[in-house]
Structure formats: C-alpha cells, structure tokens
Amino acid sequence: MKVINLDYLASNPLLPHVQEAMIEAIRKNYGNPSSQHQIGDKAATALAKAREQVARLINAPSEKEVVFTSGGTESVNHAVKGVAFANADKGKHIVTSNIEHNAVLRSLRALKMMDYKVTSVPVDSYGRVNPDDVAKAIKDDTILVTIMHSNNEIGTIQPLAEIARVTRERKVIFHCDAVDSVGVVPFDVQKLGVDLLSFAANQFYGPSGVGGLYIRRGTRIWPLIDGGVQENNKRAGTENLIGIIGMGVAAELAVRDMDARLLYARELKERLIRGLRARIDDIFINGHPEFSLPNLVSVSIRYIEGEGVVLMLDEEGIAVSTRSACAAGALQASHVLLSIGRDFADAQGTMVLTFGITTTEEDVDRFMDVLGRVVQTLRGMSPLYAKAKQAAASSARLAAAEGGIR
Amino acid sequence: MKVINLDYLASNPLLPHVQEAMIEAIRKNYGNPSSQHQIGDKAATALAKAREQVARLINAPSEKEVVFTSGGTESVNHAVKGVAFANADKGKHIVTSNIEHNAVLRSLRALKMMDYKVTSVPVDSYGRVNPDDVAKAIKDDTILVTIMHSNNEIGTIQPLAEIARVTRERKVIFHCDAVDSVGVVPFDVQKLGVDLLSFAANQFYGPSGVGGLYIRRGTRIWPLIDGGVQENNKRAGTENLIGIIGMGVAAELAVRDMDARLLYARELKERLIRGLRARIDDIFINGHPEFSLPNLVSVSIRYIEGEGVVLMLDEEGIAVSTRSACAAGALQASHVLLSIGRDFADAQGTMVLTFGITTTEEDVDRFMDVLGRVVQTLRGMSPLYAKAKQAAASSARLAAAEGGIR
What we know:
CATH superfamily of the largest domain in chain A: Type I PLP-dependent aspartate aminotransferase-like (Major domain)
Oligomer: homodimer
Structural class of chain A: alpha/beta
CATH architecture of the largest domain in chain A: 3-Layer(aba) Sandwich
Number of strands of chain A: 12
Strand order of the largest sheet of chain A: 2-8-7-6-5-3-4
C-alpha cells in the first residue's frame, strides 16, 4: 500500500537532485573546509557554493551573513540566547508572541531562569499579531523582539514588515523564526527588514539536521557554539558538509520552482478545504484565510480525538499530525489553538495537514474519503456527539413548531 | 598525483561501509523519528540502532545516556555551559587545564563574561595534568572539572581515572573532551568514571557534523539547544539522521577493528618518529612517549616556519597541519606548545601529523623524503640556522682543541 504523507512539516522528502548531490559529496570524501591544504580547498569551495545558494533564497545582501547550523532549532536558540547574552548590559527584556514554536518558548524559559523578563503579545482569532501591540510592549530595556513568520500549527503569516518597522524605529533587534516559511513562500530579508532569521533545509526538500541563521551585519550577538573560527567566527565546529551541500541544492531548486510549487500547493489546499467542508460537518479551518502558508491546512473536527484519528489513518497508510497534544505525549492542549480562541475539546480534535510536490489530488481525495469514514466511526461512539445532534434536532423541531405558531 | 593525507585529525575519510549506509539512508528518505505514524517509525528504529552502536563504543551503561549532537564542539559547549547554567545556584567556579581545545577555552571565555571563575591547572613537559593539582584547585563553589582525554596537538593522554577519583570524592561533575580519543583508542565511561563525555564521528571514519555527548544519569545539566523533546528531552531539533546512521556504523566498525587499527597506527608512528630523527637534525617529538595517541606525531623542527612547510608540502600533494598559528591566521604561538615549555620559535616550526587506516608505509616514507628536502631548502635560507651551525662547529673545534691540551 502506498503511504500517503500529509505530514510534510515533520520532514520533506529529499528531492532527487538533492539526493544526488549528497551522494556525490559522500563519494567525493571531502576534507575539512578549514584546512590549509588542497584537501581542504575543495571542501571550502563546496561550502562557499552552498552559502551563495542559500543567501539567494532569502536575498541576503552578502553570503557572509548566512551561518550554517544544525537546523531550525539551533538557529532559533542561537538568535534568542545569543542576543540575550550579548546585550545583557543594555537590558534583559524580550518581546515575543503567544503562538511561538517550542524552540522559542523553551529558549525563553531558559532565559527567564537567568532573570530575563518576557512580554508575550496576543494574537487575534486568525493568529495574527498586531504590530501596535509589539510597539506597546517594547520598553527601555527591551533588547530583542522574536516573532515567527508563519505558524507551524495554523499556517498564519504575520505582518512582518510592519513589525520590523516598529523594531527599527525603537532600535531593538528583531529575530524571526521563519522555519516554516523559508523555501516555501518567497522571502526577502532586505524587504522585510529582519535582523536575524532562522530557517531549516528540511522544509524545502533538503535534509534534516541542517539549517541557517541569517545575521544582519552589525547585529550584536554571541555564538551559541563556541570553539574554532568556522562560519565567519559565528558558529564553531566542523561543518556537516554533506548536509550543507544538500541544503544548497535544495535552496537553488526552491528559488527556481517557487512559483510552480506555490500554485500547486494552493490548488491542493483549496481542494482540501472544500472537500473537508463538504464531507464532514462541525469543523473549523484554523488560521488566516489569506495570510497563510499555502501548504498547510489546520482543521478542528468537533466531537473527536485527534490522537485517535492519527492512529486510525496510520492503519490505512495515511500519515498526518496532530498538534493537539504536546510532543511529550501529555494531554495538554495546543497553546496556539487556545490563543486563537479554540476551546480545549476543539484543540483535541485538531489535525495539521501539510503537503508538497509529491502529493497528488488522488492522495488528497483518498485521505478525505478515509477521514470521513473514520470521523463517522469515532463520532458514532461519542456520547457528546449524539447529545449535540439530539439537541440540534430538537431545537430545529422547536424552531419549526414555533414557526408554525407564529 | 596521489594526495597523501597526513592531516587525519581535520577529518577522517568515510569508510566504505559508512558511505553505503549513508547513501542507503538518503535513498530510503526516512521521515522524522518523532512522528507518531509509520513514516516516523522507521526513522525512530534507525535512530535507536545508531544509539546502541554508539553506546557500545564507549560502554555506556544505557543507550539513553547518549545524546546525538552536531559534533564534538557542540557536545563540549553543551557539557560546559549546560553544567554551568544548571548549577549556578551551587557555585560559579570551574577547573580546567592549560592545554584544552578552543571549544572548551572559548566556552569558558563566554562563561567568564557571565561572572564564572576558572582555574586552569598546568601540565608537565609531556603535557600531563597532575591529579593532585586538580584536587588542590577544587573549591567549595566548584561545579565542574573539564579536562580533555587526549590532546589534539601533541597527543598526550591524561590520567583520567585518577582525576575522576578526585572529582567523585569532591562531588564535582567531571566533563571530558574526548573528541580525539573516542573511536581511536579504547574508551570505557564506566571504568574511567566520567560524568560527561564529548566525542565526534569524524575522528573514527564517520561523517563531520555529527557527534555525541554521554550524560551520566542524574547529572545536573541544561540543554544547550532548547525546543522539542528529541534526544530524551536533552537536545532539541530534528535529528541529522543520515549523519547519525553513518556515525552508528562507524562506531560499530571502530569496536570491531580497534585492535588492528591500534597495532597498525603504532607501527606507522614508530616509523615516522624513527625516520624523522634519522633524516632531520634539531627536532623535538612533542608529547608523552607512552601515554599518547597512536595516530599522532607532533614534531617541532627548529629554524623553520611551519606555515612555509605546509605550503611547500601541499605543492607536492602532501597534506599536513600546523597548529603553530591559530586558525584565525594570527601569528600566535600554540598555547599547548608553550604550556609544555617550547619557546615561540619552536612552536612556529611545529607540525601535527595524523594518519589512519588508508595511510601506507610508502606514504610515510615519501612524506619524510619530501620533508627532508623542504627543511634543507628552508634552513638553507635561514640566517639563524647558519649561525647556529657555525656556533656548533666552532664549539666542536674548541672542544677538540681543548681536548688536545688536556
């Protein structure tokens, strides 16, 4: 049975060109880019090429502003903690939003244990931050604003340029966690005006365990990983060259194919939303209808448990993800869904569907058919659903009766 | 022209089996080990297998004590900063040695800027730490002792078990940077009694950009990289699974072939030392004659500049490394060589030769022949060398004349 992957966010499949480039790198047995001899020279050349490819993806003014990391999470930690430590003499206050990823949340939690203070601005029911709220949250001792570009659970995209205008005016460093955006939607650090940008290769068909951090020239930041002088003295440690080469090729292809991928993703997204609404009642589509990732649909299905759906779909060879329980397995509702006003029960019944260039319309249709059956089965066992339907039916009868009286 | 690699320390070549395993992993297109569905299951199984392979290499009591990182430098940063931050309430004093790698030195430099205090114990002329000095350096507020296993410039191996006995008695956490030892010489965390151990795959024919940190159960430490619950909640971020699979296979082969590799390396090392002494006068072999890495020879050649030798050898297709100048290119003498009593000039004329299973006796012999010529050429241009030889000759004549008188 063909496995249908609607959990692209967990990890994209590697593109054939990316695979080839990585396999070639393995066979070439590159040396260490920092060596002073010819074995190192070839490695240094390959590293420089990848850096240029990645710089173009985000339109960095200089490729020297791109630091390779071990992934989006390291990039975020580097940005948040690196700015916090380097600017502690100026202040210890940081502004963030209510719907950040755990990489940001837990980095901030660590900083709070070191006497940093954090103000978290709310989002509206679509998950959007109001730039005015950011402006209000900034104080004299604010050293960093860290707000994500697109949300990994509901896909909502923030008004980044407006937020950056605020941070620039107030001379506060602005970090953006764009792990779910870079390589997926067009991204231009110059236009958007961020100082620090975190991103990861496995969101655009590159390997897992490789990422990047854009550091605008002049940004006051410490390394997260100290040691040798690699990465322009900003990130120590011998590079994961095989992975970085893969990331470079993936970046180049993302630039080349961006428009076609966007178009295709939008078609699939529309098909999914339309199909889900037609097949299943009592659902919400979460996130902003316009400012949103094209490759993500978040759907809350009332009267069911997301975890149960994931298991039943898995048995049918369909991979989806629920963010209703935290990854630790605790029965904790998503902070993102609660922040946009969903209640605990709805949050429990939420699935995040993410897809990409290998996803077909048939995959989507088959998923929706299976999901329709699964939801029917689960709701058939749910006393809550029966009660709700009874209530709805009786109020309809009542309305009809009342209509008769009037 | 075949390139002779005598700079194995910069990066080992990948073993064919490691290459195959990584290429297979690329083609298999593994998912995310943290996913709840079957795409993730296969990835989780592959990850678990690699963890067991690596745990066996260091004889960890449980594979849960092995955390995968992006390399030795990250492991060291995690250990040093993680312990410092987690134990700040107990104290802010750290003990280290004078000859640590930059990963330790610069992690400590960062901590010093956060009001941590560091005591650095000296080494003898072989580069060995005296465990009594460690005992004397430990104070009531000491929270960490961090001392390397083998030195990356001179190869000297520390009396680790004795140092661990001290730290255990004093109830201080002991971290060992064993990046140049694990996979090269037998290593047993249980026998040696360390609490934290940093190591890297590219020192035992695995890929660069992958490493491990052994964390003894119960050790009080914070993550360096916060976020998701990967790696037993000790290191967040989607894993570099392709690299980790390569590391696992490399670890298994290191266990299997350890004895044969050791025997062969010792033969080459002896051949090198004997041959260098026979061909070139005025040289020192640095490091301990017995407690030392079998795959490393550090040689100081008087009256020459190491940088010049590296370039001339490179033109002949021979890759060696000098640690006489810091990696930034500054004309700074190695802190390790100065610590063992070499003067600035000798430190400048030092080469670190590292080798392994693909190195042949012919490689070593050709290197020594070329080096002999290069040294002769360089010394022929050195006024210092001419002066020293004149002085030596005249004092010999004088001695002969005096001998005649007596």
